[in-house]
Design brief:
With about 130 residues, the protein is mainly α. The chain contains seven helices and no strands. The radius of gyration is 19 Å and the shape is elongated. The two termini are about 35 Å apart.
């Protein structure tokens, strides 16, 4: 895909659509079950910017801000927003089902809590 995404003879709109159709679905596989921390969200945003910089052939040594790169590509950040939307859709499906998946998602188990810091739940990630 590198030859297609970095080809100057193909318009930037076509390259963005190729990125959205062929690469983003592979990147977001199984994202409905991810718990996204702030660190992980930063990595996702960095990945999105890395793709755009590669498509526009902007070297990492260039002193261009992310905002300038987004303006040049005529694009907004959408990867994290798309993942959150998919998670909310999946969560609605799970909540309507109301069985074991519902218990796992909400974290309402009977018994003792384990020691140490509690794990981040899917609901915690969607609340932010």
């Amino acid at each position: 895909m590198k030859t297609i995404l970095t080809n100057k003879h193909i318009s930037i709109e076509t390259r963005k659509r190729a990125l959205q159709c062929y690469i983003e679905p592979v990147l977001m596989y199984g994202c409905e079950a991810w718990t996204i921390s702030k660190q992980f969200q930063n990595k996702l945003e960095a990945t999105e910017m890395w793709f755009l910089r590669r498509m526009l052939r902007i070297p990492w040594t260039a002193k261009k801000t992310n905002e300038r790169v987004l303006n040049q590509a005529n694009k907004r950040r959408s990867l994290v927003r798309t993942i959150r939307k998919r998670q909310a859709t999946f969560l609605g499906h799970v909540m309507r089902r109301g069985k074991l998946e519902h218990l796992v998602t909400t974290g309402k188990f009977e018994g003792k809590r384990s020691r140490g810091r509690q794990r981040e739940k899917i609901m915690d990630g969607l609340a932010t």
